[in-house]
Design goal:
The complex is a heterodimer of chains A (127) and B (326). Chain A has helices at 25-33, 47-61, 66-80, 93-123, and strands at residues 16-18, 21-23, 43-45. With 127 residues, chain A is mainly α. In chain A, helix 2 (47-61) runs antiparallel to helix 3 (66-80) and helix 3 (66-80) packs antiparallel against helix 4. Chain B is α+β, with helices and mostly antiparallel strands. In chain B, 54% of the residues lie in helices and 13% in strands. In chain B, strands 1, 2, 3, 4 and 5 form a 5-stranded antiparallel beta sheet that branches. Chain B has a 3-stranded antiparallel beta sheet with strand order 6-7-8, covered by helices on one side. In chain B, a hairpin with a 3-residue loop joins strand 3 and strand 4 (30-36). Chain B starts with 8 loop residues before the first strand and ends with a helix. The chains are: A mainly alpha (127), B alpha+beta (326). The A-B interface holds A 39, 41-46, 49-50, 53, 82, 86-89 and B 1, 6-8, 10, 23, 25, 32, 34, 36, 38-45.
C-alpha cells in the first residue's frame, strides 16, 4: 500500500487511514502541522474575525487607536487571506468588511491630516 | 482559487453567549461540536460508531418565571404613561416592546432541557441543544446515521429475550387535569367588549351606565388574562390560546393609554367644576378618539375570534389525545 501523499510503500503498522486516504506517519504529521488534514484539527484561529476586530474595536473604544488598528487590520488581511478558515462553511465577508472599514478609517485620518497641514493657508486672510 | 466544499452540514442553530457561541454540525461519519470564542474555534468530533448514548434531561418548568418576565416587560412599557416628554415615552415603548419580544420568544421556544452525549471515554454537554423541541429534531436527524453504523436496537437479535417482557407493559394512567373554561370566557368577554365599545361611543346618551360597564369589563379582562396565563403553568396545555392571551394582555396594556387619557380629561373637568364650586361633578363619559376606538375594537375582534376558535380546536385535540392515551 503506497502513501497517498508521498508514494512511499507502507506496512500495516505505519498505514494511517484518514477519511479514505492512506498516509505515512511523516505525511500525517506534516499535514497536521500545516493544517491540511482538517478532520483531525481541534482548533483554528479565525483571522477574518480578528481583522474585523482590529478594524472596529480601536475606532469605537478610542478614536485615535484606529491609527494603529487600521494598518494592523490591513496587514492581517493581506497576510492571512489564504490561511485556512473554519472547518465548517464560512464566507470571507468579514475580510471584505474589515478591509473596507480599515481603508475608510485611514482615508478619514488622511483627510484630517491634510486639513491640519492645509489649515494655515485656509485661515490666512488676503491683504 | 476555488474553495473546497465543506463536508459539514448544519445540525442546530447557534447557542450564543457574551464571549462566543457553540453549534453542532454533521458529517458523513461523525458529529462536530464547534465552540467559538469569536477569534478562535475549537472542535470536538464524535464518530457515530463511538456514540453510546444521547441523554436528554427535561429541566424544571419555568413558566412562572417566564410569566413574571412578560409581566415585568408590560410594567416597563406602562411606564411610558407616566412620563411627559416624547423621547422618554418612545424610549419606554421601544425598550418595552423589545423586552416583550424577548419574553414571548422565550415562551414560544418551549420546554428547556439539557443534552449529554456519552462515548466510552467522555461525557460531553451539547450546549446548542437547550430546548426539548431542538433535542427531538436533533435525535430524529442523528438516529438513522447512528443506526446505519451501529445497527438498530429493535432489529438486533442479541437483545435478551427477557427485555421483551417489559415492552408490553403500559404505564399507569395519569389523571388529566380539567381544562376549565377561563380561556373561552376571556375571549368571549373580549368579543363582547368589541361590541360595547362602539355602542358606548355611538350613544353617549347612555352615559354613566356604559362608561362604568366599560371600566369594569376592562379590568375584568386584565384579571382574566392574568388568570389564564397563571393557570396554564400547571393545568392547561393549550399553547395557541395561551399566546393569544399574552397578545390580549399586551393590547390591554396599550389600551391603558387611551383610557388613561380619558380619565385625565375627566379629572381636569372635575377640578374645573370644583373651582367653579358646582354642586355636582361632571359624569365620566366614554369618549375615545377615532384611532383609539379602531384600535381597541380591531384587536378585540381579531383576538376574540381567533382565541375562541383556537381554544375550541385545542380543546378538541386535547380530548382526542386524552382518549387515545386512555
Amino acid at each position: 500500500m503506497p502513501c497517498d501523499s508521498c508514494g512511499r510503500f507502507l506496512c500495516h503498522l505505519c498505514d494511517l487511514e484518514i477519511h479514505g486516504r492512506h498516509l505515512c506517519p511523516g505525511c500525517f504529521e506534516k499535514g497536521v502541522a500545516t493544517q491540511k488534514i482538517e478532520t483531525v484539527e481541534t482548533r483554528r484561529t479565525m483571522y477574518d474575525s480578528l481583522a474585523l476586530m482590529y478594524a472596529t474595536l480601536p475606532f469605537f473604544a478610542f478614536f485615535w487607536g484606529s491609527l494603529v488598528g487600521a494598518p494592523v487590520a490591513i496587514y492581517t488581511i493581506l497576510r492571512r487571506w489564504n490561511a485556512p478558515s473554519s472547518v465548517v462553511p464560512r464566507t470571507r465577508v468579514r475580510f471584505y468588511i474589515a478591509a473596507v472599514l480599515a481603508v475608510a478609517e485611514l482615508g478619514v485620518f488622511g483627510f484630517l491630516i491634510w486639513i491640519l497641514v492645509r489649515a494655515p493657508s485656509f485661515t490666512a486672510a488676503p491683504k | 482559487m476555488a474553495r473546497v466544499k465543506s463536508i459539514y452540514r448544519r445540525l442546530t442553530g447557534r447557542y450564543r453567549t457574551l464571549l462566543g457561541y457553540s453549534q453542532l454540525w454533521i458529517a458523513t461519519d461523525h458529529l462536530l461540536l464547534v465552540k467559538s470564542s469569536r477569534i478562535a474555534e475549537e472542535y470536538r468530533r464524535f464518530a457515530f460508531s463511538d456514540i453510546q448514548a444521547v441523554v436528554v434531561t427535561e429541566l424544571p418548568d419555568s413558566q412562572v418565571t417566564q410569566f413574571v418576565g412578560v409581566l415585568a416587560a408590560l410594567l416597563w412599557t406602562a411606564l411610558a404613561a407616566t412620563v411627559t416628554s416624547n423621547f422618554s415615552r418612545a424610549f419606554f415603548l421601544v425598550s418595552g416592546a423589545w423586552l416583550m419580544a424577548l419574553a414571548v420568544t422565550n415562551l414560544v421556544r418551549g420546554q428547556r432541557c439539557r443534552c449529554h452525549l456519552h462515548t466510552a471515554v467522555s461525557r460531553e454537554l451539547l450546549t446548542p441543544i437547550r430546548r426539548v423541541r431542538t433535542a427531538r429534531e436533533f435525535l430524529a436527524r442523528i438516529r438513522p446515521e447512528i443506526e446505519a453504523v451501529q445497527g438498530s436496537l429493535l432489529a438486533d437479535d442479541t437483545i435478551p429475550a427477557q427485555a421483551g417482557d417489559v415492552v408490553g407493559e403500559t404505564p399507569p394512567e395519569v389523571p388529566r387535569p380539567s381544562l376549565g373554561y377561563a380561556m373561552e370566557i376571556l375571549f368571549g368577554l373580549i368579543l363582547v367588549d368589541a361590541i360595547v365599545i362602539p355602542v358606548a361611543q355611538r350613544f353617549p346618551a347612555l352615559g354613566q351606565t356604559t362608561s362604568s360597564l366599560m371600566i369594569t369589563t376592562f379590568f375584568t379582562e386584565i384579571v382574566l388574562a392574568i388568570f389564564v396565563l397563571v393557570r396554564r403553568a400547571s393545568h392547561d396545555p393549550r399553547r395557541a390560546g395561551f399566546l393569544l392571551a399574552i397578545v390580549a394582555l399586551v393590547c390591554l396594556g396599550v389600551d391603558i393609554f387611551g383610557i388613561g387619557s380619558m380619565m385625565v380629561a375627566w379629572f381636569q373637568r372635575v377640578m374645573e367644576s370644583a373651582q367653579r364650586q358646582e354642586s355636582t361633578p361632571p359624569a365620566f363619559v366614554w369618549n375615545l378618539s377615532p384611532i383609539w376606538m379602531y384600535f381597541m375594537v380591531g384587536w378585540r375582534i381579531f383576538v376574540g375570534l381567533a382565541g375562541l376558535l383556537t381554544a375550541r380546536m385545542e380543546r378538541a385535540s386535547d380530548t382526542l389525545e386524552g382518549r387515545a392515551a386512555g
